[in-house]
Write a structure and sequence with these properties.
mainly alpha; Arc Repressor Mutant, subunit A; two-stranded antiparallel ribbon; flat
Length: 206
């Protein structure tokens, strides 16, 4: 972003930050909106400019000063939100306009519209011109308009308390019977394994 050449300090000097480096940072930040470079130009050490810039843009007083200077600059050069939105709409409309794709014809040695073959619903072939539009510009302008109108600021704040509930379930005769059968089956299996093991031992001794 090129410098406007405007001395922003002359507008309401009482709002100037007491910290000279913070004041310089607020002004420098408007030049390219790069917090690291702004901190470096404001006099912060190069090896700590990234951390300093990150901290400064989160400082309430510094950010308030940046917002004020932005308003001043917009008023001086005659830009407001209506102007920005109007021009974004124009960008979108222009980007959506179909533009013929041109290519060089080596036979006629002229630029001609590129064509392609398509089939209609009845299977008949037709030669049509190829057109394109600026989908990137259209999408970007719509994104900026939507952000301004708050369409993409959806925040879902869900707070839930999880409570553990312990149910006291009375013993069931049916379940007790199943437990008894399971225990008996397990005991019989253990006894059978012991008998088999003992049989193998006797067989090895003989």
């Amino acid at each position: 972003m090129a410098s406007t050449g405007i001395d922003l300090h002359e507008f309401d000097p009482s709002l100037t930050l007491n910290n000279s480096r913070q004041e310089r940072f607020a002004n420098e930040f408007l030049e390219d909106l790069n917090q690291t470079k702004a901190a470096l130009r404001a006099g912060y050490a190069e090896n700590g400019s990234h951390v300093a810039g990150h901290r400064l843009v989160r400082n309430d007083k510094v950010w308030a000063r940046i917002e004020y200077l932005q308003e001043v600059r917009a008023k001086v050069i005659g830009i407001d939100k209506h102007w920005v939105l109007s021009n974004l709409m124009k960008v979108h409309e222009r980007s959506m306009e179909a533009v013929a794709v041109m290519e060089f014809n080596p036979v006629t040695k002229e630029m001609e519209q590129k064509t392609k073959m398509i089939e209609d619903v009845d299977g008949n072939s037709h030669i049509v011109g190829v057109y394109m539009y600026d989908s990137g510009g259209a999408n970007r302008s719509l994104e900026l308009i939507g952000k301004h109108l708050g369409m993409f600021n959806l925040k879902v704040d869900i707070s839930a308390k999880i409570q553990t509930i312990n149910f006291a379930v009375p013993p069931s005769p049916f379940m007790n019977a199943l437990d008894d059968k399971s225990r008996n089956a397990r005991n019989e299996s253990i006894k059978l394994q012991k008998i088999k093991k003992k049989g193998r031992q006797i067989k090895q001794m003989n």
